[in-house]
Design brief:
Number of strands: 5
Order of helices and strands: HHEEHHEHEEHHH
Distance between the termini: 62 Å
Strand order of the largest sheet: 2-1-5-4-3
Oligomer: single chain
Largest sheet: 5 strands, antiparallel
Structural class: alpha+beta
Length: 232
């Protein structure tokens, strides 16, 4: 196996991350492009996927084949596995040969039974109190990932994680603006209808939210929809 020129690869990763950021694409497109590019830049990678874990859910928002999805399904079922371990805080987790792996025994049995994967490299993307994520690359060959592959993977994960985080934050900001606009519209409707001030209108929204166990913005959206029904 030819040893990659790490400097050239790093420059290529930098350029990829810059272009991805400059395109201002949505977060879903960012991670889809991340997983596709990972196959070409990380030596030994045959499959790639993103694992996202919260307190109650494990999802695979992007994958190049079905195998990463299947392996995340197994991790969700058993609440254990290399991708969850990386997402939870380990910067890099490697499985050199799943046949002889002793960690995550429940995961190992099902992974061997349901996939041909033997080598796994899981790289943390971010780890917060609510959401954790890892980039994972896989191979059907044992000992597929060299030290150079691990170094390239770490560099790739670090650079692309920042782009993904920026895209996620922008989407959160845009959703917050949209929510504020909807709440503002519904408050105006309530103020006019009941001859109340802005704070009283918001208090009414909040009470409706609590009574129906529904987010304030969802209550507001329903009021706006009732007042301005969609035209067929």
């Amino acid at each position: 196996m030819t040893t990659p020129d790490f400097s050239a690869v790093q420059l290529a990763i930098n350029a990829f991350a810059r272009d991805l950021h400059a395109d201002a694409v949505d977060s879903g497109t960012v991670i889809a492009q991340m997983t596709d590019y990972a196959l070409g830049v990380i030596p030994g990678a045959e499959h790639a996927g993103i694992t996202v874990a919260t307190a109650n859910h494990v999802t695979t928002p992007a994958a190049t084949t079905d195998f990463p999805v299947t392996l995340d399904d197994i991790q969700r079922e058993h609440r254990q596995g290399p991708c969850l371990t990386a997402a939870a805080g380990a910067l890099l987790v490697e499985v050199t040969d799943l046949e002889t792996e002793t960690r995550w025994p429940l995961y190992r049995v099902d992974a061997l039974a349901r996939t041909p994967i033997r080598s796994i490299l899981s790289l943390q993307l971010f780890s917060s109190t609510r959401t954790r994520a890892a980039l994972n690359v896989y191979s059907g060959t044992p000992h597929a990932f060299t030290p150079a592959a691990r170094d390239i993977g770490m560099t790739f994960a670090t650079h692309t994680a920042m782009v993904w985080d920026a895209a996620r934050r922008q989407e959160q900001f845009e959703r917050a603006l949209a929510s504020r606009d909807i709440i503002g519209q519904s408050k105006g409707m309530l103020m006019e209808r009941f001859d109340i001030d802005s704070q009283q209108a918001f208090d009414m929204l909040r009470e409706l939210s609590q009574d129906t166990n529904t987010l304030v913005v969802d209550v507001a959206q329903r009021l706006v929809d009732i007042d301005h029904p969609a035209q067929s």
